Amino acid sequence: MMASPALIDRIMAVMGSAFDPAYGEAWNRRQIADALTMPNTHALVVDADGTPIPDNAAQSASPAGFVLTRHVLDEEELLLIAVLPGVRRRGVGAALIKHLFAQASSRGITRIFLEMRRGNPAIHLYSKFGFEPIGERRNYYRMENGERVDAITFGCSI
Ligand SMILES: CC(C)(COP(=O)(O)OP(=O)(O)OC[C@H]1O[C@@H](n2cnc3c(N)ncnc32)[C@H](O)[C@@H]1OP(=O)(O)O)[C@@H](O)C(=O)NCCC(=O)NCCS
Asked: What range does the domain containing 94 cover?
């Protein structure tokens, strides 16, 4: 199913400033639109209070963060999570994870995975919710300056 342009706009409004270009982690509009055409891909957008913004909300809704996931059978992979820099450390990321756990659980998901570059402070958010490191890939990511960074895989039962 095609994602609504308003949903993609909201995701891109956060994407535009949430990722440090040094790591090349941000997705472009086309990548988001393509991902959302797949029925097992889920996007959740919240405002600065951590309240979910419905896909059909008015244009005026103000996105502060989003999480993008994909499920296969009873496992779900967290592909991207991001919060606008100006509203960090106010619980928006935690709200995204809480809503994700509730929605994933209602889809019959029992385990969530994610992959993170070593050194990303997001590890503190993930640890708080029970994600534990389960593997690593040495020098997996390549930064803009050519340096390599390890990827760490985390898993969490919900
Ligand atoms: C990771 C990210 C989504 C966290 O969003 P956030 O809204 O700031 O998270 P919260 O305020 O809900 O944080 C909840 C808890 O996680 C931990 N935490 C979050 N960010 C942290 C940081 N930078 N340093 C230390 N602990 C952190 C804290 O324990 C925090 O609780 P506290 O503020 O009461 O101490 C945000 O920093 C971000 O968008 N980063 C850039 C994108 C990115 O790298 N995403 C992950 C890879 S896809």
From this structure: 5-112
Report how far residue 95's alpha carbon sits from residue 31's, in angstroms, rounded to the nearest whole number: 25
Q: What is d(CA 83, CA 95) in angstroms, rounded to the nearest whole number?
A: 11
How remote is the CA of residue 47 from the centroid of ligand 1, in Å? 15
Is 115 a known active-site residue?
yes
pLDDT tens sequence across 57-90: 888 889 999 999 999 999 999 999 999 999 999 9
Residue 129 lies in a domain: no
Averaged pLDDT score across all residues of the chain: 96
Q: Is 141 a catalytic residue?
A: no
Domain count, the chain: 1
**pTM to 2 decimal places:** 0.97
CB 64 near ligand 1, within 6 Å: no
Determine the Cα–Cα distance for residues 83 and 77; give it in Å rounded to an integer.
Answer: 18
Q: pLDDT class for 1, splitting at 50, 70, 90?
A: low
Asked if residue 152 is part of any domain, the answer here is: no
Sheet strands side by side (includes 132-142): 41-46, 65-72, 75-83, 111-117, 148-157, 132-142
Note whether residue 139 is domain-resident. Answer: no
